[in-house]
Predict the structure.
Amino acid sequence: MTCKTTSYTSKADWPTIDTWLAARKDPDTKVDGIVRDILADVRANGDEALARYTGKFDCAGFEARNIRVPVEHIAKAKASIPADDLAILEESIANIRAFHENQKEKSWWTTAEDGTILGQMVRPVERVGLYVPGGQGGETPLISSLIMNAVPAQVAGVPEIAVISPPRKDGTLNPYILTTAALLGLSEIHLAGSAWAIAALAYGTETIAPCDVIAGPGNIFVATAKAQLIGQIGIDMFAGPSEIAILADESANAAWLAADMLSQAEHDPLAASILVTTSPELGTAVCEELKTQTAALPRSEIAQKSLEDWGAVITVPDLDTGAELINLLAPEHLELAVNDAWSLLGKIKHAGAIFMGHHSPEPVGDYFAGPNHVLPTLRTVRFSSALSVETFVKKSSVIATSPDYVNEHADKIARLARLEGLEAHARSVECRRK
């Protein structure tokens, strides 16, 4: 069996599916205490703790003087990358930047006849830390994560951006990460990984200045560290394992759908890949394709485990019922692999990113099209959104009330204050009346 098969006909069937998927988000409470100790250690001991953890887990003999990557190493790395790859990276960055430019918010003001001015001032945070996982031994660098996190911060106008990523065993960083940073115009790069890297970005060390916001994906230790720091710094989101849902009718291509499901299944044994279809025949064909395609993947063991535990083909009686189930699943990624995707779009209420039609596979969003691939998971799209320019700005209300305004409204404001038992509030307004 590659993945489970079942059906959904109404909301009465949802509790069974919900109970099955809920196990994906069971917290590993054992990690909490470990991460708490790491955060405290780095906060107290700075570079020494950072070097100690890095030497133990990533690069034997690592020393504090190696934490900051010399600027000349960044330029040297760029020179080692094939020109074709540089061109692809540049085009990807340009596409993603163009999309995020449309997200910029402006400060705004309103004025009244009495001279009162009210408004909202939008300002970027001053310093952002970006965590970039090293991949398998540093040989599968997550360059797309760096682009997706750096570009919206830059568009927001953040003046200081620090990148941190675990070193390889030889103490270096993959040249593709360094090159991507160079193409983005980033020059502050540090070597550290896991929870101690997050602690360094949050608290600062002798080498690394503390940050206001931390963004970037990572393992359970990274995610837990970010979660424990909420309230002290801003974070992008608490992201769980990746997921894709596909709503398909008989017009879909089974081989394509299987490939799309595997694009998430190869991420992580906890990744969820779910096909919702009106065609039982398509569902059967996809299951067969999954068996064939999984066996041919380099990461076949991960994909197979993911599909066995969290993969499903769910048959529905019609597309309206399928859309109802999709909204209950509230997936990170959603593909509408149907004959007329646009007619169905209005029925989708909860999805992080929506890929329209048969020629919009999820990886175009991961790497190239422009929208951000950092998306809410585990049904949190019901109340949250993709990483965006807004993640890296803060908004201040501006209140400039005139003497006439205070004269006109002081009694009402004072009354509200006294209803709450706050006499000093009331007097603060009343003392300004003419």
